[in-house]
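Structure first, sequence second, as always.
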């Protein structure tokens, strides 16, 4: 389903979407379709288009930069954390690898697990797809334990932070290319959080437009030169 919302800024528009749709902000894809900067005579606003997809419900992505978090006590504090760690460890072992799993952070309705392994590159997979798949299973298991409200974030070798930095650089470099060539570029398939990062990074470029294309979880972002306005 597709919905449109308007707010004084992107955050305000997304908050309105979460309230009206009854979803967490990481359960839908956001496309910025119009931006009006504040002037002396007009208030600024941002209009977004929200895409919801039944196929991606239950997939949970972190919305914050992990590096900003305070390191938590790595020892499980209750039965839920203990079972969650055991599940992730067992899952990795059944894949044929070994990893030490510990708590990296705790927040309200969110918990992070750090995977330490000699096979980290394999656990991450191409563009993080293996890590995302394991994270999805961990969230499903958390739901089976009666903690549907908790988002489980898996990370190893600080991949999530490095991936964010890489995507920001990609967004800027792509914007320069489409501006130089007066064209558009279709980026690689990305999960909802990664696509939103591209949209947000280029939101303030008046001559650049971004939109998501494709179906399913891993859609692509097209970066478009639209000229100066």
């Amino acid at each position: 389903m597709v919905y449109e919302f308007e707010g004084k800024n992107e955050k305000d528009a997304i908050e309105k979407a979460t309230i009206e749709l009854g979803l967490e902000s990481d359960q839908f894809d956001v496309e910025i379709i119009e931006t009006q900067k504040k002037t002396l005579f007009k208030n600024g606003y941002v209009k977004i288009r929200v895409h919801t997809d039944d196929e991606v419900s239950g997939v949970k992505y972190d919305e914050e930069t992990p590096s900003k978090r305070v390191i938590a006590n790595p020892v499980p504090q209750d039965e839920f954390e203990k079972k969650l760690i055991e599940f992730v460890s067992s899952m990795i072992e059944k894949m044929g690898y070994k990893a030490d799993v510990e708590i990296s952070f705790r927040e309200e309705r969110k918990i992070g697990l750090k995977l330490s392994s000699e096979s980290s590159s394999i656990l991450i997979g191409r563009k993080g797809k293996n890590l995302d798949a394991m994270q999805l299973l961990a969230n499903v298991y958390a739901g089976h334990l009666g903690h549907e409200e908790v988002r489980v974030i898996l990370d190893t070798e600080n991949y999530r932070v490095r991936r964010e930095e890489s995507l920001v650089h990609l967004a800027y470099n792509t914007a320069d290319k489409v501006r130089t060539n007066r064209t558009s570029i279709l980026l690689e398939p990305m999960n909802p959080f990664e696509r939103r990062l591209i949209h947000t990074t280029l939101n303030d470029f008046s001559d650049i437009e971004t939109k998501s294309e494709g179906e399913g979880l891993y859609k692509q972002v097209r970066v478009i030169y639209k000229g100066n306005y």
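Margin note: The longest helix spans residues 159-181.
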